[in-house]
Amino acid sequence: MWSNSDKRDFITLAVSEEYIKPRQSIWRVWNRLSRLQKNIISFVGVLLAFIIIILLYTGVFHSEETGKSRTVAEDSIVKKIDDASLLSNADRKNKLSAIKDFLEKQKEQKEAEEKQGVGIERPPENKLLDRQLPVENAQISQKPDKHIEITRPALVVNVLHQDNGQPYNFSGPQNDRQKAVVNGFLHAWTAYKKHAWGYDQLRPITNTGHEWFGLGLTIIDSLDTMYIMGLKDEFKLARDWVDTKLNLASNNDVNLFEVTIRVLGGLLSSYHLSQDEMFLTKATELGDRLLNAFHSHSAIPYSDVNLFHRKGKPPKWGPDSTLSEVATIQLEFRDLSRLVGDPKYEVREIKLAF
Description:
The chain is mainly alpha-helical. The chain has 11 helices and 5 strands, in the order ααααββααβααββααα.
């Protein structure tokens, strides 16, 4: 019998460690999710299924097309090989080796034909390139523009660097469209003169000048434009600034590409148009200073050069020069060499080109 002291109002159960909690069904877990969670899971599932279907479809289609094209190409080559009786050799293990031999033989045959001149079409001789023509008296067959009062030789190769000391004469705008272009230029030029004269460029919002290299880039950029537009007073003002104010020995690190195409090119084009020796003198001085960028360990020049110290250097952001810059400055240096009769400028560019 149980005594009163043994009576208890609860029951104790001892569960062993081997008891495993029963797993909940996936459907019950799904029902416990919120609507937002269900929508997100559904969307991701549909998206993954769509991507997998697209990948499988495109992969199968691509493999079928590739197999077809490869089969057609192989059949074509094998047919040629069979016709040439190249598969009769028992030493070859399979058709792939025969295909390789056939292609190599075709290549050798083609090279032999090219050496002998067989099957090569020769271009017709161009009699217009005969340099024995009397170029001095040859004239352009087309009628020149009304605002250009000068005749030129017929062959462009003989035009280069043969200005004969005669400046070009332009009579300014001749129609409403040309006048509108000139007025647009004068609008911008007048603002530059008023707010940023002598600076590299104008900041149109603040009406202030901004320096980049300290070389009066806008003035030199505008020289040939003003000459062609017939703006003689404006051209003379800019020309006098270049003659008296342009400092090519400023202690600044300048970009070789930008200064070559804008300053050196602007000075050379102004000389070609006006025949003013001052422009050629300035261009020669600038060319001598820019040449120091070519004092590098290779034919590739430095991208920057200090005009005062005459020393080239890599850019601040890295050790390498930009190929698109240093490879597109050949025109100006070659033109300078042929104008002054000194090959040193062109020689540097030839080394860069080759």
